[in-house]
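Q: Protein A?
A:
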Amino acid sequence: MGLRGRLFASLYDRLLASAEEAGFRARRQELLRTAKGRVLEIGAGTGLNLPFYGSDVQLTVAEPEEPMAKRLAQRLREQRPNSELVHAPAEHLPFPDAQFDMVVSTLVLCTVADQARALRELRRVLKPTGKLLFIEHVRSDDPKVARWQDRLNGVNRFIAYGCNCNRATLDAIRAAGFTVDSLERGEIPKAPFFVRPLITGVAESN
């Protein structure tokens, strides 16, 4: 990772701070209180989800970007020293089949290089009837906003280090063979209008 990647990692928490304080942190907490058993979090970034896992969760976190992983490792030492950190992208998870009860993805599926492959990997490492817990910003259902997302996606990818603001992620989750058990639509507070549309939910691996 070059200078841009190191800079993005150093600024990541500050870039999200206003959204976290305006309600996004509470959204994370509400979703992750349901996590249980052996849990894998992909693209764990700097570890903003760590405070919200229960003490009985057996946690593994995956992060492919070294500057992010360094910050994540420090938070793991401070908050969850018994957790495992692996340096791996969601498209290439170094685990045998059917290893996890749950997989967590928060603001990750917008950035993975190959979304369909990543979702196939998540299904592969989940146990039968395992759960995917997700919070993802997505393509808007409003055609006007969606057109702006398409126009601005290149700019967004540059500013947000590869983040796509126009992915139809819910459709991709279903196409990968997951059954969506619960879904809530919302917005990322304090975010630009073209990255605001948000989905939060739970999907089951069949």
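Q: Protein B?
A:
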Amino acid sequence: MKVSIIVPIYNEKENLELLYKAIEKSANILDCDWELILVDDGSEDGSVETINEIVKDHSTNVKAIILRRNFGQTAALAAGIDHSTGEIIVLMDADLQNDPADIPLMIKTLSEGYDLVSGWRYDRHDNLTRTLPSHIANTIISAVTGVKLHDYGCTLKAYKREVLTGFRLYGEMHRFIPVYADSNGAKIIEVKVHHHARRFGKAKYGLERTFKVILDLFTVKFLTSYSSKPIYLFGGTGLVLIASSFMLLLYLSVRRITAKISPFSSPLFMIAVMITIMGFQSILMGLIAELLARTYHESQNKPGYTVREIIQ
């Protein structure tokens, strides 16, 4: 077994030496092969120079990937995963708020039959402007996706490599990896991990991140629930619109009989007609989306199932 520890870095020069020493100490406890992949995401504070020094001094275990510019945390993690070789992949932040001492616990938990071990910053050392939006986002994501986790925002997670295949990471989608993994049948467990106050540098995210999470959630919900059957979303919406239009027309007809009021004199008639047209358009969009979904899956030879194991 080999463990790949992937750390995205953006302007974390002061933390890097301490981070490497802490990771090395924890990784040596694992009693297995390990590699550390440091992915610099366009740092401007001299982090690249420090990374080069670490690689030069510890070349047997450390690999550096220097991106051409700042692509974002998700892209940096994706680059690290693509260039890793371990059967087990551990993701963590470079700001020393994640504790590398938790890595052995996560690997041990993973070996108990789980595919993904997610960190839960139970005693979080951040101010209210970060913890409150995070709590709200975690609640919304758990409710919408059905994957109940206390802390989607904790980067510290351990994965079996196979649960990271079958999808690509874009935008700010790294926090939704458990949702993608769950859609592929992964067994997920959450464990409490240590969390420390930031010692050096400053946080890279603010309140605006909450709005991005909510927008990304629409994409994730569609991809995990409707990507193979988009007609359920578009067709279902169309049927609801047509049913609403029918109720309006029924109301206008009853009013015409009982109160002798012409349905054409009410704006509700035009609204009902427009809703009916929108309903049929939505159903047609669903049919077109079905064709696109089949083309997508068949062109890539993607099956509609995933296999955990074969027993003979």
